[in-house]
Amino acid sequence: MGRNVEGLKKALTNISGKDVVGETKGEVYNNFNLHYVDVKLALVIKNAAGQVVATPTVAVALGETAVNAGTDGKYPVKMGTYAVSVSKTGYESASVNVEITYDDAKAETKEVIVVLHEPCDVTFAVKDALGAAVDTPTITVTKDATPVTATNGVYACGKGTYSYSVAKTGYTTAEGTFTIADADLDTAKEIAVELAAA
Description:
The chain has helices spanning 2-16, 25-34, 102-107, and strands at residues 39-47, 57-62, 65-67, 75-77, 80-87, 94-100, 109-116, 120-128, 138-143, 146-147, 150-151, 154-157, 160-167, 174-180, 188-195. The longest helix has 15 residues, at 2-16. Strands 3-2-5-6 form a 4-stranded antiparallel sheet. Strands 11-12-8-15 form a 4-stranded mixed sheet, with no helix packed on it. 16% of the residues are buried. By secondary structure, the chain is of the alpha+beta class.
């Protein structure tokens, strides 16, 4: 009996290209059929505070094949591993792999929460050698040679390594780098810079 079951699993795998499990012929056939069951994948996009992020851009794909959401906003999928990417202005993009399992096929539904993180708010504290604040310095921040624009003195920086230069008439220009890691997202970071007199 055991060899017959193993032979059946191999035969179904050879025919379909899908892995099949089960201890009995009945389980094997049932599990094989689950590969073809439609599962409704619900993606819930939230920020780090647990609030739902409205109108994100979502892409779901199985290999090179894109999967479009239905009228209910859910994605019709079958067993397999799907690549999910989510983006929204003001957030770091997120990419996750979602596996649709036998249990999901039995339930015919699966909900996955994807968390989008906000960039780190980077500011600069520029002082002279005596510790006095240096007013209105010219600060340039770049990532991979691409300038990062500040809003009210705050640089929204996603993950990665950044270069900066701080200049002011009468002082020697200071240069350096800083890195934003996963733990820095959704937080604020102050870069202390000391300008030496020219």
